[in-house]
Amino acid sequence: MHVSLKRLHDKAQMPKLATKGSACYDLYAAQEIIIKPNKTELIPLGFAAAIPENYKMCIVMRSGMALKTGLRIPNSPAQIDEDYRGEIKVIMWNSSDEVKTIHVGDRIAQCYFDRVNPAHMTFVEMLSPPLEEHKGLGSSGQ
After folding, report:
1. Torsion sign, CA atoms 36, 37, 38, 43
2. Low pLDDT (below 70) residues in the chain
3. Residue 90 maps to which CATH number?
4. Is 137 exposed, middle or buried, given 0-12, 13-18 or 19+ CB atoms closer than 10 A?
5. Domain assignment of residue 129, yes or no
6. Could you list the residue range(s) of the whole structural domain that residue 88 is in?
7. Are 51 and 4 in contact (CB under 8 A)?
8. Which of 5, 28, 37, 133 is most exposed, with minimal Cβ within 10 Å?
């Protein structure tokens, strides 16, 4: 699979695998952003992507950042559709009591690519019977 990136800002950095065995690519901030306590900001990455057909880009937290900073990606995993061609940005929420500053070049998130299996959905008059009767969420006792 090949993903083409278009640099939109001169500060944009190419996503990188930290090690040979990394499952996700590190993503870097392309702009300095101040995030006040309990506020949410968009962090620009400085590039757009041509995601291959039947794939999506998933953006997730860096575990060390979540542990050490109180910064969170509230919609994690964030999903970027194959037909989106705008700048990729990360929604970041400051769950701490301190003002946080994202600097240009900071590793702020990670991404991976996943296949999409579009489903054909229809409304029907009746669903096939369940294997067992379920009484709602948590009804299986697990």
Report:
1. positive
2. 131-142
3. 2.70.40.10
4. exposed
5. no
6. 4-115
7. no
8. 133
pTM of this prediction?
Answer: 0.85
89 forms bridges with which residues in the sheet?
A: 44
Residue type, position 121, single letter: M
DSSP structure string for the chain: ---EEEE-STT----EESSTT-SSEEEE-SS-EEE-TT-EEEEE-SEEEEPPTTEEEEEE--HHHHHHH-EE-TTSSEEE-TT--S--EEEEEE-SSS-EEEPTT-EEEEEEEEE---------S-PPPPSS---STTTT--
Q: 128 lies in a domain?
A: no
Exposure string for 106-132, b = 16+ CB within 10 A, e = fewer = bbbbbbebeeeeeeeeeeeeeeeeeee
Instruction: Return the structure tokens found at 27.
Output: 């993503």
What was the pLDDT predicted at 141?
A: 60
